[in-house]
Amino acid sequence: MKKILILLAIVTFASCSSDDDSGNVNTNEFENIITTLPQGEWKVSKLIDGQSDHTVDFETFIFTFKEDGTVMAKNDLFTENGTWAYDNSSSSSEELVLQFSEQIPFDEINDDWDIVSVTNSQIELSDISGGDGDVELLTFTKL
Fold first, then answer.
1. Of all residues in the chain, what percent carry a pLDDT higher than 90?
2. Rounded-to-integer distance, Cα 50 and Cα 100, Å
């Protein structure tokens, strides 16, 4: 009988886990964005803020993301420098953090964007606007 109780105790303890984080698993599914963005030049192929389409504001800009976390947006007349970072510290999403000056139109893309998808030719991002709850969509397409 004593052996059965010991066996039952072992089975019970083995089935319990003290590190049950199934609700907060961060898989780093989009971590490849770190190596994907610095490969080549990108353009904004979509920027939607609620009912407003701001894509045309960026149609002439080419974005170059560097491995050191800097990004340059350039057209024939203007160059805007900023920073970018992959952030997986949130338990609910992985983010691409973009920070430029508050100069128009770059104030539209300064944000902590939730990463929706990453391929070698396209990065899809989204965000819920804090002010009005509108869904914002930003897509970079590789040139």
1. 71
2. 21
**Four-CA torsion 17, 19, 22, 25, nearest 10 degrees:** -150
Strands (E), the chain: 41-49, 52-53, 62-65, 70-74, 79-87, 95-99, 111-118, 122-128, 135-142
HSE on the CB side for 90, CA within 13 Å? 12
Side chain identity at residue 38, one-letter code: P
Tens digit of pLDDT for each residue in 99-121?
999 999 999 999 999 999 999 99
pTM comes to 0.80
pLDDT at residue 30 is higher than 90: yes
